[in-house]
Specification:
With 292 residues, this protein is mostly helical. The chain has one domain (29-291). Helices cover 68% and strands 0% of the residues. It is globular.
Length: 292
């Protein structure tokens, strides 16, 4: 009886961790996220090992895929259709866009499966659920760096072979900021889709197709100046928040002027998508186990 009374008198102050599922959906506990940073590192390591496990070529697949796409685009759209800029080697033009787009698309595609793909883990162990999509965005950075390194090797080859006035911009040091912008935009979009797929599984089938179609509404294939004669299509391209990011990525490598207004628009959309995604994610995570 006394033991039961003692147990009944326990308060929250007697425990080191108190889990409150009734927290408001708009509350984003970033302090709790930081406490589980070790778990973030472990999940990143798990994702990287899982990608290369039981593969013959390992990380070389991250080189083969963009190179194959680059040479295909350079031949079809660059040489045959003449869509690439005349002052740039088609290989450099297309690879600079493909590398940036692959990272953005990879983050969306992987984080969009956060709840459905990790239901067993999330329903058994407590941890801040945001750690999972964040780890996917960080692990995707490894493939981006491999592809960026491949691009830099090809870039150096063409640069020292002689060029038509193009070269690195003084703003080249801003490249990490552009990568962060791509990561946040992809992460915000991915966790928003992931939250919605807990109820509407059809979205999971549409993500890959939608991201692929969105690429054709970006300057990956053709520069924006080719669309000057089609104003409505140019406007559609500029509404894509990745368009200014891809254009700025090329600008820092090839010395083009940077569209600061477009980057401001992309940053604004990124902040909005990220906030909406985080709030929706936090709201769904309280009851996703009952839905999934």
């Amino acid at each position: 009886m006394n033991a039961g009374s003692t147990g009944a008198r326990r308060t929250e102050g007697d425990w080191s961790i108190v889990i409150r599922p009734e927290q408001p959906w708009w509350r984003l506990d970033l302090k709790e996220f930081w406490r589980y940073r070790d778990l973030l590192v472990l999940l990143v390591r798990r994702d990287i090992v899982a990608q290369y496990k039981q593969t013959v070529l390992g990380p070389l697949w991250h080189v083969i895929q963009p190179l194959t796409t680059t040479f295909t685009f350079a031949f079809i759209f660059g040489k045959a259709a003449g869509l690439s800029p005349p002052d740039l080697p088609p290989v450099l033009f297309y690879m600079s866009g493909i590398v940036a787009w692959n990272y953005f698309a990879g983050v969306i595609n992987r984080t969009s499966k956060t709840f459905v793909g990790n239901a067993n883990l999330m329903s058994k162990v407590y941890f801040p659920r945001l750690v999972v999509p964040a780890s996917m965005a960080v692990s995707s950075l490894v493939s981006y760096l491999i592809q960026l390194g491949t691009f830099l090797i090809i870039y150096g080859y063409y640069f020292f072979q002689g060029n038509d006035g193009w070269g690195p911009s003084p703003w080249l040091f801003a490249l990490p900021a552009l990568v962060a912008l791509m990561a946040l935009l992809g992460l915000g979009s991915g966790i928003l889709v992931s939250s919605m797929t807990t109820k509407y599984r059809d979205l999971g089938f549409l993500v890959g197709f939608g991201v692929q179609m969105l690429m054709y509404a970006s300057p990956v294939i053709m520069p924006l100046d080719r669309l000057s004669r089609i104003p409505w299509l140019l406007t559609l391209f500029k509404l894509n928040p990745m368009t200014p990011v891809i254009e700025a990525t090329r600008a820092v490598f090839f010395g083009y002027p940077i569209d600061w207004g477009g980057l401001t628009y992309s940053a604004g959309v990124t902040v909005g998508v990220m906030l909406i995604g985080l709030m929706t994610f936090h709201r769904v995570e309280r009851s996703f186990a009952d839905i999934v």
